Amino acid sequence: MNDTTPTGTEAAVVVETALKAATPQPLTLDFGTHQLPCIATSDLVNVTHLEQFLKQPLRARGTTSLLNLKNLQKFLLKQDCTKANTFVFADKDALLFTAILNASTQLEPAWADHRATVQLKKTRQLQNWQSNNKKKMSQEAFALFLEEFLEDIVSPVATEVLHFAETLEARRTEVFKSSIRTSTGECNLVFSSERDGDHNTVLIENFTLGIPLFDGGPAYEVKVKLFHRVIEQKLTFWYELRQIDYILDKAWEAEVEFLNETLSSLAHVFEGKAPSPTPCHADL
């Protein structure tokens, strides 16, 4: 039988070879525009990049959240970005603007992961009026609602609307008899009490809001139509915001137009949802 037991020298060579294979080997990955230091183990099975130990990142990445479109304009100016690779996407459904400062093109693929976003938010005033749109309210509840949001109404004048609200509240215990349309087109609500008899109150059937729709944005006029009915022997009020979806569309278009005008030399503006960043296993 042949003796296959390794000699001391052969054993040392085997150990040395094994240790060398297990030792991480430094290398540099050359990507043309930049080089990335890495450590390779097990014949490049695992590659660990060491960018975090450099003096500065090899490229910009990450997402910045900004308050409004004016801040986005300032941000892009400071970034000294090129229009060819800077795309801004206006997502109407999400009320979201996404600027990509390293966007991909057919000729120049890029990671598309250096971003800035502006999330438009509906104002408190708009949310208040929308949440109660077409909602039926009692005489007292509607009077209190008008008083609470009186400052949002620009027409008729505040004193006239306040008087109407206070009258409704004061007569909440009286019996509502009918509504009468006068020859001038006004609608009078007729209330009656045992002590004072009948009283007429002129109904404000139409009024106009002057409210901003998005935080930090300009005010828009919104027409409101007031309705009333006797439901279960009780006078009930509700209102409808006229063409509110159309007005919101116009407000959105104004925001997009602002970008088109102010970013004409900085970025391309598209309406739609922004693409996802390019998948990057090593976050190069």
Index terms:
5-stranded mixed β-sheet; 5-stranded antiparallel β-sheet; elongated; 284 residues; alpha+beta
What does this structure look like?
- The chain is an alpha+beta fold.
- The chain contains 6 helices and 16 strands.
- It has helices at residues 8-22, 69-79, 124-131, 139-148, 158-170, 244-262; strands at residues 25-30, 35-41, 46-49, 62-66, 87-91, 96-100, 114-119, 137-138, 153-155, 175-181, 187-193, 197-202, 206-212, 219-231, 234-241, 268-271.
- Helix 4 (139-148) packs antiparallel against helix 5 (158-170).
- It is elongated, with a radius of gyration of 35 Å.
- The chain starts with 7 loop residues before the first helix and ends in a 13-residue tail after the last strand.
- The model has no long low-confidence stretch (mean pLDDT 84).
Please summarize what this structure is:
With 284 residues, the chain is of the alpha+beta class. The chain has 3 domains: 11-53, no CATH class; 62-121 and 249-271; 124-243, no CATH class. Helices cover 27% and strands 33% of the residues.
Present the secondary structure layout.
Elements: H1 8-22, E1 25-30, E2 35-41, E3 46-49, E4 62-66, H2 69-79, E5 87-91, E6 96-100, E7 114-119, H3 124-131, E8 137-138, H4 139-148, E9 153-155, H5 158-170, E10 175-181, E11 187-193, E12 197-202, E13 206-212, E14 219-231, E15 234-241, H6 244-262, E16 268-271
Provide the helix percentage. Answer: 25-40%
Average pLDDT value? Answer: 84
Quaternary structure classification: single chain
Give the percentage of residues in beta strands.
25-35%
Categorize the overall geometry.
Answer: elongated
Spatial arrangement of strands, main beta sheet: 4-7-6-5-16
* Number of DSSP-assigned strands: 16
The CA-CA distance between the termini, in Å, is: 57 Å
When the domains are counted, the total is: 3
Biggest sheet overview: 5 strands, mixed
Radius of gyration: 35 Å
Give the count of helical stretches: 6
Low-confidence stretches: none
H/E series, N to C?
Answer: HEEEEHEEEHEHEHEEEEEEHE
Structural class: alpha+beta
